Every structure is written in C-alpha cells, then in structure tokens.
C-alpha cells in the first residue's frame, strides 16, 4: 500500500512539473504590422520574456515569408553573436539592432523594396526555455506615406503654434508703439512747459 502512495505522489508531482515546464516558455513580442516607405530603412522590433535568465545558448532566428507565399527565407540568425545571411534578398541589407541584456532581438532592414512585402517571424530559444511563441511582423512597403490622422494632428498643432507666435509678436509690437507714442507726447508736453 505504501508503494502505491509513493507512486501516486510521484505521478502527481511529475504532472505538475510537466505543467510548469510547459508554462516556462519564451514569450516573443512584436508589432503586428509595420508600414514603411520604399527606399527607406526600417527597424523590425522583437522583444522577449523568459522565466529563465538569459543563457549563453540563447538563439534568435528571423525568417521571411513573401506575400506570394513562396518558400520561407532565412533573414538573420543570432547565437552568441549575430550572423548575417550569406545569400538571398537580405544579404548586405540586414543588420543586428538588438540588445540581449535588454531582451531585445530586433533587426534593421536597409533600402526597403516592394519585394520585401510579407511576414517576418522572430523566434527565440533560451535554454531551458526552448518552446514558446513565435513573433510575427507583417511589413508593407509603400511608395509614399498616406496622410493619416497623426499627420493632420501634427499640422493642426504646428499651425496653431505659428498663429500664437504671430499674435504674441503683434501684441508686443503694438505695446511698444503705444509706449513710444506716449513717451513722445510726454516729451513734447515737457518742452512746451
């Protein structure tokens, strides 16, 4: 009877440890969609959180899936140091822009082109956290930036600021002219006396 109790306890403990192991996974965080102008550079931000401290075995894989759903392409790899792709569309166009100590594994894509439209995936493994989510960033390369609400707000605030400066300047000039005219009247009145 005593052996069955130990066996039952061991099974329960094993199930709990397995649940904890699955819960101790790397979580990857990215922007869901990024819009960039053709010919510019864009940082693809990817951060992670892990239940384990950052290990020497931490690895990062960036991959690309074009919009036409052709085969995946490796973009960048990190293991103790960054490794640029030796070939492919991102050769000489991607650089490491992360900071492992800050849980940042971002990259920079240079000279964006319409053919870069697609989904970038960021996968992090941090031993013993080898399982976890994969971050996805959908990149859209456009010819020009659309006039958005943010732009409208910036123009409105800028215009209001310029208008306020003009009004304040006009008030100051008017006061100075009145003061000069008053001083002149006082001076004329003093000379007449």
TrEMBL record:
Which keywords, in A-to-Z order, does the entry hold?
A: Disulfide bond, Glycoprotein, Immunoglobulin domain, Membrane, Signal, Transmembrane, Transmembrane helix
Task: Extract one GO BP annotation from the record.
Answer: cell-cell adhesion
Species assigned in the record: Dryoscopus gambensis
User: Which residues constitute the signal peptide according to the record?
Assistant: 1-25
Q: How does the protein associate with the membrane?
A: Single-pass type I membrane protein
Domain Ig-like, chain residue ranges per copy? 24-140
A Pfam entry, by short name: V-set
| PANTHER family, A to Z | MYELIN P0 RELATED, MYELIN PROTEIN ZERO-LIKE PROTEIN 2
Is-annotated flag, keyword Signal?
A: yes
Please give the InterPro entries that the UniProt record associates with this protein: Ig-like_dom, Ig-like_dom_sf, Ig-like_fold, Ig_sub, Ig_V-set, Myelin_P0-rel
Q: Which lineage is the organism of this entry classified under, starting from the top rank?
A: Eukaryota, Metazoa, Chordata, Craniata, Vertebrata
Keyword Transmembrane helix part of the UniProt annotation: yes
Q: Which family does it belong to?
A: Belongs to the myelin P0 protein family.
* Intracellular or extracellular location(s): Membrane
SUPFAM superfamilies, per the entry = Immunoglobulin
A Gene Ontology cellular-component term = plasma membrane
Q: What is this protein called?
A: MPZL2 protein
């Amino acid at each position: 009877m005593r052996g069955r109790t130990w066996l039952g306890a061991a099974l329960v403990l094993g199930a709990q440890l397995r649940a904890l192991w699955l819960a101790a996974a790397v979580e990857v965080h990215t922007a869901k969609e990024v819009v960039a102008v053709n010919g510019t550079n864009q940082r693809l931000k990817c951060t992670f959180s892990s239940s384990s401290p950052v290990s020497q075995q931490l690895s990062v894989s960036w991959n690309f899936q074009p919009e036409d759903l052709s085969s995946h392409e490796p973009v960048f790899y990190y293991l103790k140091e960054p490794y640029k792709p030796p070939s492919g569309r991102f050769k000489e166009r991607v650089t490491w822009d992360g900071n492992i100590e800050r849980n940042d594994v971002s990259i920079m894509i240079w000279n964006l082109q319409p053919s870069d439209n697609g989904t970038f995936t960021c996968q992090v493994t941090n031993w013993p956290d080898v399982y976890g989510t994969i971050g996805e960033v959908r990149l859209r390369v456009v010819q020009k930036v659309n006039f958005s609400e943010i732009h409208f707000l910036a123009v409105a605030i800028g215009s209001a600021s310029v208008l306020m400066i003009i009004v304040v300047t006009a008030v100051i000039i008017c006061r100075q002219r009145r003061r000069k005219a008053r001083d002149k009247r006082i001076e004329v009145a003093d000379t007449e006396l």
